[in-house]
Amino acid sequence: MSEILEDLSGRTVIVGSGLAGLMTALTLAPEPVVIVTRALIGAETSSAWAQGGIAASIGKGDSAALHLADTLAAGDGLCDARVAAGIVAEAPAAIAALERAGVEFDRDDAGQLSLGLEAAHSRRRIVHSRGDGSGAAIVRALVEAVARTPSITVLEGYQAQRLLLDDGHIAGLLCLTGKGGVVLPSSRIVLATGGIGGLFDATTNPVGNFGQGIALAARAGALLADMEFVQFHPTALDSRRRPLALVSEAVRGEGALLVNERGERFMAEVEGAELAPRDVVARAISAEIARGGRVFLDARQALGGGFAARFPVIAALCREAGVDPATDPIPVRPAVHYHMGGVATDENGRSSVPGLWVVGEAACTGLHGANRLASNSLLEAAVMGMKAAHDIAGTNASPARLPPRFPEAVVPDPSLVRPIVSRHLGVLRNAGAIHGAIAALLPLCESQGPATDPGLVALLIAVFASLRTESRGAHARTDFPLKLTHAQRRMMHLSDALDIARSVIPHTVARSA
After folding, report:
1. Which residue from 139, 247, 317, 335 could staple onto 235, CB 3.0 to 4.6 Å apart?
2. Cα–Cα distance between 445 and 218 in angstroms, integer?
3. What tens digit of pLDDT does each residue of 22-77 get?
4. Residue of 125, 252, 278, 468 marked catalytic
5. pTM of the model
6. How far apart are CA 258 and CA 193, in angstroms?
7. 278: annotated active-site residue
8. DSSP string, 460-503
């Protein structure tokens, strides 16, 4: 029997405590809201692990138009240009809002914001805090701001399990706690639950982030978009650590070079070289590893003894792995870093389900297209958190009716899913691998065990991947290496994806017989 928290009834419920969720809550103040978080507030969020910073066109010689052009180029034809233009134009306002909330960004001797350069940006426009500790510094400041805001109630140790509906409209949220099931009655819910990195063995994300928000929205009937596009960061630190530590693109922005075990700079002849878009660099590194080689990021000439001062967090992670970046090349490999797909939303974060907003990595706004431009993720999280809050503030908070019965809560476990996804849905894909993933994942989705929700998200990625018979952005197929002439986004509901998956399995079984 699940307890109903009637004393919190009617408040906007925000699921997740990364940058997007915190900005939504702070922008809604003084309207009462509830933040639901699986761990301690701000902990186990991808936002807190972000190293590079926030992309914002505020430097001399830069503009929102240039930022937009870089975003569209990286997105490889699949960005929603109108939405992207709106988000990048709000970057200066987002930086100002974060500073008002207590975030201290790095500044130069003249007091101007320090701006870094990252891959596929035509200008230095990455605003950072505490060098490469931007995410942690930003989240820490926002958590402190939340603690000072009496209108925000924080429920830690609450794992979101199911969205409850009243005639297709949001009515509440079922959570699992250490004491059992709990229901929060609300007609306005915001999912800010992060990405899907925990579905893969090699990831730079918190391993508990497997796409729970996508599973919640999908089961509630929300439209999903571009699920196949999973971005592999080219340069994760190749070590035994799990999750893998990230070696920020900003290191390459400062002049570090990619070399193989023979000392060859294999990116030298590629347009953009080390600062080519992430999908290009990830594929090149994967090819080196696939032939049995190794890849290193060599910052000795570019930074040398100054590495630790510019990148203190990365330097410490390297030392943990027995590497001194001042004197040693850093071993790197691709790892899952960001998901461009997710729950389809409009420019204010609204999903197709009345009463449900989705912000941050769980959402697919159309900003990122087929391949996210570096440091646009924290920008989107901040801007869309603010936009969703303004949109919610203009809606009616009238309560909805809770269903007479609630589903049974189950602690999700992606451990059965990871080997399937890691083997079949990596940097380089083909029909055999994708269909093999579908065949292995569908039974997990149709069970009612701990692998159900992780398996569902992974299956959605596989089904979308099976339908994209081209190589575009972060989706690379060895059996369809060329790009189609016309770029096309894809959206569908869970029911359609399940029908496609069931139609694939007989053919997969027949081929393997």
Report:
1. 247
2. 12
3. 999 999 999 999 999 999 999 989 998 887 799 999 999 999 999 999 999 999 99
4. 278
5. 0.92
6. 33
7. yes
8. HHHHHHHH--S-BTTBEESSS-SPPSS----EE-HHHHHHHHHH
